[in-house]
Amino acid sequence: MSLDHANIILATTSIYKKQMFARLGLPFQSMSPNVDEIPQKGETPPACAQRLAIAKAQAIAQQHPHSIVIGADQVATLGHNIIGKAGSFAKAFQQLQALSGQSVQFHSALAVCCGAETLSYDVITECHFRDLTDAEIQHYLEVEQPYDTAGSAKAESLGISLMSSMRSDDPTAIIGLPLIELCRMLRHFGVNPTLSAQL
């Protein structure tokens, strides 16, 4: 099978992931993988994130077997409970009230398919939320409207002001696409972003 290493597909419709990948300066296209993101019964959060990242990448790779396909998924957890996307102001307000003063783990799973080979990895980010007042929560939500983000806080913008600390091996993982790990995977498949970037 002849692989076209210049053809990279990001298996997502997320504007955030597309913006993150664009930082590498590599030409790419994005496609919706149409994968059911409902967790399976008894599935742990990291297992869920990795399964979905792999499923997204493989769904597109089946249609484009000569391309490098990247899938990613992020699951936020408080203790053993998965924290989803709020979807509305009221739910986001309740979510941030519950997260106030708590530590939240974000599992940012990544999968890259190239031919018959698939690599995957889970990058963990631990975020500790400050003790938040209702006034802070309300103003933050009105300004940022992060209803499509797990945990209702966009750490790449004003949401960082809600945190007291953040720990991860990859500072880009919190956005949902761990670029350090992704670059390692791309190099494995013969694409070196440092040498191939067209910024």
Description of the molecule:
There is one protein chain. The chain has six helices and seven strands. Helix 3 (89-99) packs across helix 4. The protein has helices spanning 15-22, 45-63, 89-99, 134-144, 179-188, 193-196, and strands at residues 8-10, 29-30, 68-78, 81-83, 103-114, 117-129, 163-168. Strands 1, 2, 3, 4, 5, 6 and 7 form a seven-stranded mixed sheet that branches. The model has no long low-confidence stretch (mean pLDDT 92). It is globular. By secondary structure, the protein is an alpha/beta fold.
Give the overall pLDDT as a whole number: 92
Number of separate strands: 7
Largest sheet: 7 strands, mixed
Regions with pLDDT < 50 over 5+ consecutive residues? none
Distance between the termini: 30 Å
Helix coverage percent of residues? 25-40%
Series of H and E elements: EHEHEEHEEHEHH
Which strand-content bin applies to the residues? 25-35%
Task: Pick out its properties.
199 residues; alpha/beta; globular
Briefly, what is this?
The chain is α/β, with parallel strands linked by helices and about 200 residues long.
Task: Describe the secondary-structure layout.
Blueprint: E1 8-10, H1 15-22, E2 29-30, H2 45-63, E3 68-78, E4 81-83, H3 89-99, E5 103-114, E6 117-129, H4 134-144, E7 163-168, H5 179-188, H6 193-196
Parallel strand pairs: 1-2, 1-3
Antiparallel strand pairs: 3-4, 3-5, 5-6, 6-7
Helix pairs in contact: 3-4
